[in-house]
Design brief:
The chain has 154 residues and is mostly helical. The protein is built from six helices and no strands. The protein has a domain of 88 residues.
């Protein structure tokens, strides 16, 4: 659990401990190597690029992190939408199937208007079609869903 929450901190800590063990084992002067490399770069004036490169890398890492977080949030919203649509689809289909009993009784009754049965069939088929189309929406935004609803009302 702790590794999941502090994954990068744990990986970095372990890496640094391994690096320290390597440095002490082979008596390496890491800081002096860094200073020497900096002095060699001074002749080409490349040392001035280190800080901007570091800051740009840091900003890029932050942007990538934010983008990944946004994508995960969108994927979670999509899963919730699909689950809600599936549940609504299931409930409404059960309702439409149960309404078939009323339809059968209305067909048997000599007093029931056949035009009303035809209207019932039309409304049931339309509702089933709209439910199916709603569950197949590709772009899932509140604006797109409202647009879909407006288009199906007419």
């Amino acid at each position: 659990m702790l590794f999941r929450v502090y994954r990068y901190t744990t990986i970095t800590t372990i890496s640094m401990l391994v690096l320290l063990a390597y440095i002490f084992t082979f008596d390496i002067e890491l800081f002096e190597m860094l200073v020497d490399a900096s002095q060699r770069m001074e002749a080409y004036e490349l040392d001035e690029l280190l800080i901007p490169a570091f800051l740009i890398s840091l900003a890029l890492a932050f942007d990538i992190y934010r983008r990944n977080k946004h994508i995960k949030l969108q994927n979670e919203k999509l899963k919730i939408y699909r689950s809600m649509t599936h549940a609504s689809h299931h409930i409404l289909n059960n309702f439409l199937n149960q309404m078939q009993l009323f339809h059968l009784e209305a067909e048997r009754s000599p007093y029931f208007d056949p035009n009303m049965l035809a209207l019932y069939d039309k409304v049931s088929k339309s509702a089933a079609m709209q439910i199916q189309k709603l569950s197949e929406l590709e772009s899932i935004t509140s604006e797109r869903i409202l647009e879909f609803i407006k288009n199906t009302e007419s």
